[in-house]
UniProtKB/TrEMBL annotation:
Pfam families: MaoC_dehydratas
Domain MaoC-like: 20-110
Domain of life where this protein originates: Bacteria
Family from the record: Belongs to the enoyl-CoA hydratase/isomerase family.
Lineage: Bacteria, Bacillati, Actinomycetota, Actinomycetes, Streptosporangiales
InterPro entries per the UniProt record, alphabetical: HotDog_dom_sf (IPR029069), MaoC-like_dom (IPR002539)
UniProt name for this protein: Acyl dehydratase
Amino acid sequence: MSVLTIPRYDRLEPGFQLPRRTFQVRREDLVRYGGAARDYNAIHWDDRTATEFGLPGPIAQGMLTMGLALGHLVDWAGDPGAVVDFGGRFPRLVPVPNDGIGVELTVEATVVEKLEQPRVRVNLAVRLDGAKVLTMPRVVVALR
């Protein structure tokens, strides 16, 4: 990953786009995240259970997807406490095959509004194979 320049509120305008970032998500990432989040739902790691529930196979946790996207914003802002509000919806599943390769998620972020200093509203687009897997993102970042 390239080093991101930490933004200054007074030099930032709506329309500013962060560099696109990609994340490879493998089955073992689902297991690790599940353990850390205490989310032991087998639809996130077991093929049989996932297919019994009508899924194509194990799927990534929605909050894992959101966490990867927010991590990109945290890296940009230079402060893990910079994300002060977030939310969104997950309209599509992120199936993760057990092939050692997994899937690639693409994250794009654009500043859409300057709020009361030092906060900005950021629009996130998270995609899998070009299709959005996160919609209605609501993210507010407090800058320095």
